[in-house]
Specification:
Blueprint lengths: L1 H24 L1 E2 L2 E2 L4 H5 L15 E6 L5 E2 L3 E4 L4 E3 L9 E5 L3 E2 L4 E5 L2 E9 L7 E4 L6 E3 L11 E3 L8 E8 L14 H9 L4 E4 L4 E3 L4 E5 L6 E4 L1 E3 L6 E6 L5 E4 L6 E3 L5 E3 L6 E6 L4 E6 L9 E2 L3 E2 L8
Parallel strand pairs: 3-6, 15-17, 16-19, 17-20, 18-21, 22-25
Antiparallel strand pairs: 1-2, 3-9, 4-8, 5-6, 5-7, 7-9, 10-14, 11-12, 11-13, 13-14, 20-24, 21-23, 24-25, 26-27
Length: about 325
Amino acid sequence: MVMDASRQIRALEIEVRALKSRLNAVMSGTTLIPSAIVGILGWASGGTGMSGSPLGVDLWQNQSGGVRTQGEVLIENGARTFTRTATQGDRLVIGVLDDASVAVGAEGRVRIMGYQSVVNVQGNVGAGNYLRTSTTIGRAEDAGATPGVRGIFGLALTAYGGGGAGQVAAFLFPEGGDVATDEATTFDDLLAAAFALTPTDLTIAAGAITVTRSHHRVDTQGAAATDDLDTINGGSSGRLLIIRPVSSARTVVIKHNTGNILTNGGLDISLDAAEDWAWLLYDAAATNWYAATGSPSVTARIYVPLGINLAGSVVSP
């Protein structure tokens, strides 16, 4: 038994050393070397090679009924399988194929997020405009410069002006939903609202505000130096909300259990800098908002799975 335990310990030591060696191969001091990750990941696919970074890429199986090529816009077709669509603004979009070619039934590398050098488009596209799926199968179209259009999944970095079929480079992100009308309340929609949709400003009145969308800046009543936010009206079941202060000179204090807000950890949240923010989830059954924050200067914190907090620090699970 002692010999078996000794062998197991030795085997673990070898594995740890091997892992350390592999990590050293992709690090320069404390800096990650993206180009070195290709070797350590060793992704195998049925495709014929991709042109971009492996970061933001995932393997999906081709169930579209034909060979697919780089630049085609794809939607999910079940468990890690993809096909194409001719539906404008399709919200099932998962990304763009980055492999040069992928046979039916084979796995291909799909760009989910980040820089994509080739995206097939239909019609003219302006640089800086958003992209959504078009009525031409497998191709995107110009969705305009206003964020919040249903089904947007990327931002064109180059322009195409030749009409008909063309290609652009783009930055891809998870499909944003119909955040312009604030109908959607998925986590992807919250992110789209937080980083794409321009917030509107609300002013506290007698400790309360009434929200109309998923992203607001909040000001104190009468421009007071500090003001308590006790109650948030306008909630619907499962609704997600991000709020920020209008000014670093005026502190908005989200009060725990004074009105209809319960904070993570039971502590008040003070938003006293323009970059501070809090996010909230509404429970219609309890008629309460549950609040947490990722701001570095506030008291409360939220910890999410894998031991990472929203302030950007890794913590013990």
